[in-house]
TrEMBL record, chain A:
UniProt-listed InterPro entries: Aromatic_CoA_ox/epox (IPR052703), Ferritin-like (IPR012347), Ferritin-like_SF (IPR009078), PaaA_PaaC (IPR007814), PaaC (IPR011882)
Designated name of the protein: Phenylacetic acid degradation protein
NCBIfam families reported for this sequence: PA_CoA_Oxy3
Gene responsible for this protein: paaC
TrEMBL record, chain B:
Annotated InterPro entries: Fe-S_Maturation_MIP18, FSCA_dom_sf, MIP18-like, PaaD-like, Zn_ribbon_PaaD
Domain PaaD zinc beta ribbon residue range list: 125-164
Span of domain MIP18 family-like: 18-71
Domain of life: Bacteria
Protein name: Phenylacetate-CoA oxygenase subunit PaaJ
Length: 299, 166
């Protein structure tokens, strides 16, 4: 049974909405926006997505959105100012990918990118578990980043030749940016692994903690099978990913046995179907609170 | 029915082309290669822009600035479209734009993005826009905006931005 507030505190949704609107009106005062068309959003490359393509775009868009939200936390907290800027820039690129992908996903159901980002509840998100993982220490962020960017690099490379012109356009643009993200994560992986005993130990812990979320990225399912020929099969991206990661780890002098743990294995990860880790809920609460508290607010 | 006024599309193009980048105000959106097209679509001025990077926050400002500039010049039916394809590249930056960047203190892109540089990928030296020295060092690939990286000059010791080849 779900907990219910006492009867005297229970109010109709309409009454709550009315109160919010009244408070919002008060908070915003009589500020008006100019006459420019603020509703017009940054569109992708045009086109309307089919239901299946929309669901696929939602997966990719949510991956980018959630990782972007995670990375934004580092601004003012990274080990050095240059890293604040680097992680902030990466987050901004990812937000751009998320906007294009969610905009496109929304064309199938008449929803805007903001509707999708702010007004869906946790089970409606389609991001894989990797992107939800906490920032941890800096090494965890780097371990997550190297896996995420190596995956995205292969994904967007393959997707840039998609028969779906909009997905192809988004991917062709994103892949140039993800190359910087991968370079950043690889350089830090090498630096941490080859740094002090402490930094190497932390990098190994981070890889051990993060590696279980790799497998979910490369799983085919009914949706990707229906979209065969339009989007790459996730499993087809794995060999190239393994090759890149293998080269990075070899240079970092890290053996796979150093961070894979038989007892942990791979996470079952149900993100593509709306089953999420415990980490997503609090992230969404923070990300969505402003939009939900002040519906329709613009500035 | 009154005859529709003839749209001076060449003038509309000049007006749109003069709008500056809000982040790098020495460059117009034409110099930058962000302005892709200005055309007459049944009496509507249709301007097509492409963002530099996917997340560039300046693109919304550029759209508003184009609308305002054209409105101020008397154009009424205006639409600004965005396109992602073909993806923006610094190869579209004009030579005039590159010279203006350097004068402004930002090292321009060093070569064409599509250019093959031989079997060994070499990054060309980035010239310090202040003293002209090639003894410079990349401090961070990520600079003050998505399109720039952060350099320092080992000769004059000044930090500077470099517009990345992209």
């Amino acid at each position: 049974m779900s907990p219910q507030p006492p009867a005297n505190e229970r109010r109709s949704a309409a009454a709550v909405d009315a109160q919010y609107e009244a408070e919002a009106a008060e908070a915003h005062g009589d500020v008006t926006v100019d006459e420019l068309d603020l509703a017009a959003e940054l569109a992708g490359a045009g086109g309307t997505a089919s239901e299946d393509v929309a669901e696929y775009a939602l997966r990719l868009g949510d991956d980018a959105l959630i990782l972007s939200q995670r990375l934004g936390w580092w601004i003012s907290r990274a080990p050095e100012l240059e890293e604040d800027m680097a992680l902030g820039n990466i987050a901004l690129d990812l937000l751009g990918h998320a906007r294009s992908l969610l905009h496109y996903a929304g064309t199938a159901s008449g929803r805007s990118e903001d509707d999708l980002a702010y007004w869906r509840d946790e089970p409606e998100f389609r991001c894989a578990w990797l992107f939800q993982q906490p920032n941890g220490d800096f090494a965890h962020t780097i371990a997550r980043g190297v896996i995420a960017s190596a995956y995205m690099q292969e994904l967007y490379t393959a997707l840039s030749t998609s028969t779906d012109a909009t997905l192809a356009a988004i991917a062709a643009k994103a892949v140039k940016e993800v190359a910087y993200h991968r370079d950043h994560a690889v350089q830090w992986t090498l630096r941490l692994a080859g740094g002090t005993e402490e930094s190497r130990a932390r990098m190994l812990v981070a890889l051990t903690d993060t590696w279980p979320y790799t497998d979910e990225l490369f799983r085919d399912d009914a949706l990707t099978e229906r979209l065969a020929g339009v989007v790459p099969a996730p499993s087809s991206l794995r060999p190239a990913f393994d090759e890149v990661l293998g080269a990075v780890l070899a240079e970092a002098e890290i053996a796979e046995a150093d961070f894979t743990n038989r007892k942990i294995g791979q996470s079952s990860g149900g993100g593509r179907h709306g089953n999420h880790s415990t980490h997503l809920g609090p992230l969404l609460a923070e990300m969505q609170v402003l939009a939900r508290r002040h519906p329709g607010a613009t500035w | 029915m009154a005859a529709a006024p003839v749209l001076d599309i060449a003038r509309a193009r000049r007006v749109a082309a003069a709008v500056v980048d809000p982040e790098v105000p020495v460059l117009t959106i034409d110099d930058l290669g962000v302005l892709r097209d200005v055309r007459d679509e049944a009496g509507t001025v249709v301007v097509t822009l492409t963002p530099t990077y996917s997340g560039c926050p300046a693109i919304d400002q550029m759209r508003d600035d184009v609308l305002l500039a054209l409105t101020a010049e008397g154009f009424r039916d205006i639409r600004v479209d965005f396109t992602l394809s073909p993806a923006w590249t610094t190869d579209w930056m004009s030579e005039a734009g590159k010279a203006k960047l350097e004068q402004f203190g930002i090292a321009p892109p060093t070569h064409r993005a599509g250019e093959r540089q031989g079997p060994i990928p070499l990054s060309l030296g980035v010239k310090c826009p202040r003293c002209g020295s090639l003894r410079t060092r990349e401090v961070s690939r990520f600079g003050s905006t998505a399109c720039k990286s952060h350099f320092e000059c080992l000769a004059c010791l000044e930090p500077f931005d470099h517009f990345k080849v992209h």
